[in-house]
Amino acid sequence: MTDLDIAEVAHRAGVPASTLRFYEEKGLIASTGRRGLRRQYDSGVLERLALIALGRTAGFSLDEIAQMFAPDGRPRIDRRVLSAKAEELDQRIHELTALRDSLRHAVACPAPSHLECPTFRGLIDAAASGGVVAPGRRPPERR
Fold this sequence. Notes:
Shape: elongated
Largest sheet: 3 strands, antiparallel
Helix content: 40-55%
Strand content: 5-15%
Number of helices: 6
Oligomer: single chain
Strand order of the largest sheet: 1-3-2
Order of helices and strands: EHHEEHHHH
Number of strands: 3
């Protein structure tokens, strides 16, 4: 296995070098050393970066992703954590589907204005009560 220069890893992984340095700082990846001033990485870092990207796409935080690796760097993914994330995604898909359908209805609604459309009003009411949450944000705590 040959070491890869930080620029090559960044290019092949499709992330900026600054992301690689940040991931290294967070302990998600490790360089094997330096050649001059440039970090070098084992070629296995590309698979690890792919796993990190997959985790990020699924909505895991970097801290959650870090817990998915054993101290030796090998993946150690708890299936219960994956199942819980799948349930979260199902819920989010359900919410986004309802939101999409409401927006499509508002486009075709014969009401004189969006605010007079009962479906659109329901969407506004849901947003006001915290029922519609932007991706990546958590709903407000209910008391």
